[in-house]
Design a protein that fits this description.
It is a single chain. The chain has one helix at about 15-20; strands spanning about 20-25, 35-45, 50-60, 65-70, 70-75, 85. The protein is mainly β. It has one domain (about 20-85). Strands 1, 2, 3, 4, 5 and 6 form a 6-stranded antiparallel beta sheet that branches. Strand 3 and strand 4 form a beta hairpin.
């Protein structure tokens, strides 16, 4: 497999504007996203600076069973808000 080049992040992210629903139209799927149809990621900023995240989709087909995951997001680079981590299983937390 060829070496992959590093992708640069954006300079800054306005967290308040980023919050809301994001419709997934293309992706390089993670293990959770394989066979995900009609996927939507929803973000809400918590008072403590973490991000409440909801990932909903249909498994296997557009009429497949509905699935929902609710990981917690963490802004890892607070100077730019452009680098995040996600915690799917408590008590694990992304590296800071």
């Amino acid at each position: 497999m060829p070496a992959q080049s590093r992708l640069d992040t954006v300079r800054t992210v306005d967290l308040k504007r980023f919050m809301g629903d994001w419709y997934v139209i293309a992706s390089i799927p993670t293990f959770i996203e394989k066979e995900a149809y009609a996927a939507v990621e929803s973000y809400a900023l918590n008072a403590d600076g973490t991000v409440a995240t909801t990932f909903t989709f249909r498994k296997g087909a557009f009429d497949g069973p509905a699935k929902r995951y609710t990981p917690k997001g963490f802004v890892l680079d607070t100077a730019t808000n452009a680098t995040w981590g996600m915690r799917f299983i408590w008590p694990s937390r992304p590296n800071t």
